[in-house]
Amino acid sequence: MHQLGVHIHSIDEMTGIQALERAHPTLPMKPGLEERCEFEYIRHGTQCLIANLEVATGEVTSPSVGDTRTEVDFAAYLDTLISQDPQGEWIFITDQLNTHQSEAVVRLVARYGEFKEELGVKGKSGILATMASRAEFLTDRTHRIRFIYTPKHSSWLNQIEIWFSILMRRLLKRGSFLSKEDLKSKILKFIDYFNQTMAKPFQWTYRGKPLHV
């Protein structure tokens, strides 16, 4: 939680995570030889991780690993988060993917915010009419629950992307997974380990100066 009592969470999905089982054991490092990973592997399917990073603490909270990442999945994930403090103020930082600006998300925010006006009909009228109208509602600064969307092609500004790269380097790149269930279990265990031993707020070093090519 932010020091002013606002929950600020950086959130996104990591899709197509492959459960790859190495066909042969990895050869350990020896004097003069690097660790060698077997290049042949067995595919066991994929999983999708929906995760968020609490900006104030650097912890990854309430992760969800499953087969899909539909707008219903994303809205259900948000519901799990917001229900932890249903009367609190929440700010979600994410990209402009259509599932992040969906009818399901608008209806969820409206329900928690006790929004009394009609939402309209998706594709036809009101707040639900278009993605732009839904985004305008979801980013409204007067709402207790609102979104901040990163500019297009700038998802690297979202801090959860930094953590996804940590997950890739520390677990996924060198791991061997016997099934989708094994992959899910190891991801969740890594998140527990990360929160207990490595989590801390990320400090930006880029000062916003123009980049010259």
From TrEMBL:
One of its GO terms (molecular function) is nucleic acid binding. Residues 10-184 form the Tc1-like transposase DDE domain. InterPro entries: RNaseH_sf, Tc1-like_DDE_dom. This is Transposase.
